[in-house]
Fold this protein.
Amino acid sequence: MKRFTLAAVMCVICVALTACGGGGGGSDDYTPSVYVAGAVKLTSAVKNACYWKDGVRTDLPGSDGNAYGIAVANGHVYVVGNTTSNACVWVDGVKEDLDGDYAWGIKIVGNTVYISGTNNDSKACIWIDGIKYDIDSSTYSSSANNINVVNDTIYVTGDRSDDGSIYKATLWSKA
């Protein structure tokens, strides 16, 4: 009985290991790319938004800015951040301005682009395909830092101040 149990366990382990190979297509040599958004300091006063793919830096146009979020979908690279003038999204390196101060997070679902950030009044907002929606009407400042979409419900995390000094973690959702 011990031998049968040991043989059955070994069979399950072998099947599990075989099923976990390569990630599809029968090829075991697939290596996913790693993307990181950020900025490089060009001078003591100027920095430039950029991103790295597998350690290779790509500078983004619209100098003196930061890149805070990145998503790769449908063959395109989307980077969100800000320049000295406003929030923006770069799609394959082409800058598109957004109506707001900062863009922090991004999520692509199908062909729809969701971005979280801060509007010109220092309030949390989101953009859906470039159209801005304010999501916080509190008296003091707030910021939408991350965004996700699950079953057609938009979830946004960030922070807000109820008294002008202490910030609290906040979750907004919109169906």
